[in-house]
Write a structure and sequence with these properties.
Layout: E1 7-13, E2 46-50, H1 58-62, E3 65-67, E4 87-91, E5 95-98, E6 104-108, E7 114-118, H2 127-130, E8 149-156, E9 162-165, H3 172-179, E10 197-203, E11 206-212, H4 227-230, E12 239-245, H5 255-268, E13 283-288, H6 295-308, E14 312-315, H7 324-348, E15 365-371, E16 374-380, H8 382-389, H9 396-409, H10 411-417, E17 425-428, E18 434-437, H11 467-493, H12 498-511
Parallel strand pairs: 1-3, 2-4, 9-11, 9-12, 12-13, 13-14, 16-17
Antiparallel strand pairs: 1-8, 2-7, 5-6, 5-8, 10-11, 15-16, 17-18
EC number: 3.6.5.-
Domain Obg: 2-159
Enzyme class: hydrolase
Length: 512
């Protein structure tokens, strides 16, 4: 069973915001005492924390789905919903967070660094928070927005000062065990080391870490063996120690040839922008296994050639510990020099200035798109998209409130400028989004419209008659009345009503 994992994909879903509440306070002798609906709670975030006590991503390899808590719903009597609890995920120091496309989001290279990988949703406002002198009793509340949902990739790059590189079975794990208190697995077959091993070395007053990288072979940068899988752990090391086997029995191999192969693979491996290439970093050479017969002779034979190339060469034995003290102090000297150089660079590095967004920055953009169904206008922006997500489209008053907000933001003017006319299709948000048939009149005189709670007269299907239509209706009524009078006069002239009139006169005469 694997005990070390350095690359995982997390499937995250942050907590959703709770919905606001629609409520009206009722008291004795005061049945409508005003709105008292509480706000919904915010959803919990998912936060990645660089923890020095964590050394592997194995836990997330087994449980890649991580979900934070949702926010609570608002309630009456001004009771706000509870905020969802944040979910903190400890990761090893040196973890790089990337998008599924490979874009780097953050490098958690320092202990205690925090990164919000998935932001929780925003809780909706209750009708008490939405009330104002012109809208005293809102019949709606805002919905909570959903939390961020998606995938992120975690890639672990070992944080060590010195990386031990070399062929399989060159003695790198044995060297880590001899220099530190680490206890890596050691065996007499190639590729015994399947995961990087870390050890802490104390040389005088200097303390540094060393990493044993699984063996490299020719073609490792192209994916052969295990080298490509773990070469990323060499990226953060300040110095390289080439461990060369002076007792190999394989034909065609010798320390000089092994070094040339390793150097070519290191040169072929691309490092991130801004980092020093692996081939150009400080390098030392350790000729290992001089305790083996003929190992000492081979080390003495190749040492002059290696020193002529500019390398500091040390003859060592991990069995007898010969030469290990000199090697540890030489490594400490290189590490201290690199730390001093990096400290100077850190002081000279320009300060990062965080500038807020410009006040005149456009809060939204409008794109004219077209397809088989005709031309439509797409509105993109953080505010319009969030407002749409907060709107209950089953409530006419909430829809009217959304129209008011969009109008104040300038969306209506932007649509006019883009060439939209009444009745055109407008989509808010990416993808399918929310589709509207745009009616500019919906966003006018918002504060002057009065209607029962939960309704908005501007959304009624009826329309106000124009002056011409009212004139035509008046003329139709007048013509109808004239036609009715003419019909009555014709009936009277025809004598239809004469008998009734005479009868009435005779009755009156009898009474006299």
């Amino acid at each position: 069973m694997a005990t070390f994992v350095d690359h995982v994909t997390l499937h995250l879903r942050a907590g959703h915001g709770g919905n606001g509440c629609v409520s009206v306070r009722r008291e004795k002798f005061k049945p409508l005492a005003g709105p008292d609906g509480g706000n919904g709670g915010h959803g919990g975030d998912i936060v990645l924390v660089a923890d020095p006590q964590v050394t592997t991503l194995l836990g997330y390899h087994r449980r890649p789905h991580q979900v934070s808590e949702n926010g609570g719903f608002g309630m009456g009597d001004m009771r706000h919903g509870a905020r969802g609890e944040d979910l903190e995920l400890p990761v090893p120091v040196g973890t790089v967070v990337k998008t599924p496309e490979g874009d780097e989001l953050v490098d958690l290279a320092e202990p205690g660094m925090r990164f919000v990988a998935a932001a929780g949703g925003v809780g909706g406002l209750g009708n008490a928070a939405l009330s104002n002198p012109k809208r005293k009793a809102p019949g709606f509340a805002l919905l909570g927005t959903p939390g961020w949902e998606g995938d992120v990739e975690l890639e672990l790059k070992t944080m060590a000062d010195v990386a031990l590189v070399g062929y399989p079975s060159a003695g790198k794990s044995s060297l880590v065990a001899a220099l530190s208190a680490a206890k890596p697995k050691i065996a007499d077959y190639p590729f015994t080391t399947l995961t990087p091993n870390l050890g802490v070395v104390q040389a005088g007053e200097s303390r540094f870490t060393i990493a044993d990288v699984p063996g490299l072979i020719e073609g490792a940068s192209e994916g052969k063996g295990l080298g490509l899988e773990f070469l990323r752990h060499v990226e953060r090391c300040t110095a390289l120690l080439h461990v060369l086997d002076c007792a190999t029995l394989e034909p065609g191999r010798d320390p000089v040839t092994d070094l040339e192969v390793i150097l070519s693979e290191l040169a072929a491996y691309p490092v991130p922008a801004g980092q020093v290439p692996l081939r150009e970093r400080p390098q030392l050479v350790a000729l290992n296994k001089i305790d083996v017969p003929d190992g000492k002779d081979l080390a003495d034979f190749v040492r002059p050639e290696l020193e002529s190339r500019g390398y500091r060469v040390f003859e060592i034995s991990t069995v007898s510990h010969e030469g290990l003290r000199q090697l540890s102090f030489a490594l400490a000297e290189v590490v201290d020099a690199e730390r001093a150089r990096l400290a100077v660079e850190q002081e000279e590095r320009p300060r990062i200035v965080m500038r807020p967004k410009a006040v005149d920055a456009a809060p939204f953009t409008i794109k004219v798109e077209g397809g088989s169904d005709g031309t439509y206008y797409r509105v993109l922006g953080q505010k319009p998209e969030a407002w749409v997500a907060q709107t209950d489209f089953q409530n006419d008053e909430a829809v009217g409130f959304l129209a008011d907000r969009l109008a104040k933001l300038g969306v209506e003017d932007g649509l006019f400028g883009a060439g939209a006319v009444a009745g055109d299709t407008v989509v808010i948000g990416p993808g399918s989004g929310i589709v509207f048939d745009w009616e500019p009149t919906l966003t006018s005189t918002a504060e002057l419209v009065t209607a029962p709670r939960g309704t908005d007269e501007r959304l009624s299907q009826g329309s106000r008659a124009t002056r011409r239509e009212r004139r035509e209706q008046y003329h139709d009524r007048m013509d109808g009345k004239a036609a009715a009078r003419a019909e009555l006069d014709a009936e009277r002239e025809a004598g239809i009503w004469a008998d009734d009139v005479d009868a009435d006169e005779e009755v009156e005469g009898n009474d006299d």
